């Protein structure tokens, strides 16, 4: 009896699975929204913003009728910007500290896509949170204001609020860029705080230096916090300067972070 050898099976290989950008965005949303640090950061941002807005609204009766209502809502940005920047930094440095970045880059080898997805997600999360914060702050400060929002004049109402949302998203991207570039949580936070908080103080000190140092004082308006102030000033006439400056500050660390991400191993 002759045994018939079975014909060898041809090896079949499943096509390589490529993670779509939509799936990458979804995974980044899941990661950021399941972190306790994210909710703590957003909670602190909300508490600071609404609390400071209430204090300013209560004191605005003594400021006279010329104090715009929009300033009551956007003024806390000079404090909450730090929390936004730190959130952006820890979103990525946390992955480096735990080693999760290796799993992320294994699932999606296109490193530029990973950086872009994280940038989109953190910016959207911060922007959505800021919208909610502004809505609550407008509602709770309304009884304290002598003159409320004039919604018929967008330059005095809607435009500063929208640009305040954009500014908070930009601060988050600055922190994210430093996170990709430096990788260390402490280092990225230090760089973010330095750019957003320390540099304005340093530049302002030169106002005592006389006319020879005025160029440095004038250059302070090109720092992120002052650019945001130009953007969110009701009826401001330097929106282009503020917008270009803030966009440059948000993009520069991200571009440098992208270069570092491509050049170095995870």
UniProtKB/TrEMBL annotation:
The keyword Membrane applies. It holds the Pfam family ABC2_membrane_2. Keywords: Membrane, Transmembrane, Transmembrane helix. The chain crosses the membrane at residues 39-59, 79-98, 119-145, 157-181, 188-208, 239-261. This is ABC-2 type transport system permease protein. It comes from Microbacterium trichothecenolyticum.
């Amino acid at each position: 009896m002759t045994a018939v050898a079975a014909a060898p099976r041809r090896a079949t290989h499943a096509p390589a699975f490529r993670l779509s950008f939509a799936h990458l965005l979804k995974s980044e949303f899941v990661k950021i929204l399941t972190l306790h640090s994210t909710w703590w950061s957003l909670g602190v941002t909300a508490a600071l913003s609404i609390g400071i807005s209430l204090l300013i609204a209560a004191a605005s009766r003594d400021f006279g009728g010329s104090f715009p209502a929009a300033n009551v809502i956007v003024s806390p940005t000079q404090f909450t910007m730090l929390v936004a920047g730190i959130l952006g930094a820890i979103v990525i440095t946390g992955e480096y500290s735990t080693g999760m970045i290796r799993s992320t880059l294994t699932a999606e080898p296109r490193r530029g896509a990973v950086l872009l997805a994280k940038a989109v997600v953190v910016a959207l999360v911060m922007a959505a949170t800021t919208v909610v914060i502004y809505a609550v702050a407008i509602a709770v400060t309304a009884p304290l204001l002598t003159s409320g929002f004039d919604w018929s004049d967008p330059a005095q109402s809607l435009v500063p609020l929208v640009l305040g949302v954009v500014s908070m998203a930009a601060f988050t991207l600055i922190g994210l860029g430093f996170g990709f570039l430096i990788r260390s949580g402490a280092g990225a936070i230090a760089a973010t705080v330095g750019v957003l908080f320390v540099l304005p103080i340093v530049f302002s000190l030169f106002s005592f230096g006389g006319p020879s140092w005025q160029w440095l004082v004038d250059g302070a308006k090109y720092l992120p916090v002052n650019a945001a102030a130009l953007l969110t000033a009701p009826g401001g006439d330097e929106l282009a300067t503020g917008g270009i400056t803030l966009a440059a500050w948000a993009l520069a660390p991200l571009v440098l972070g992208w270069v570092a991400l491509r050049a170095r191993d995870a």
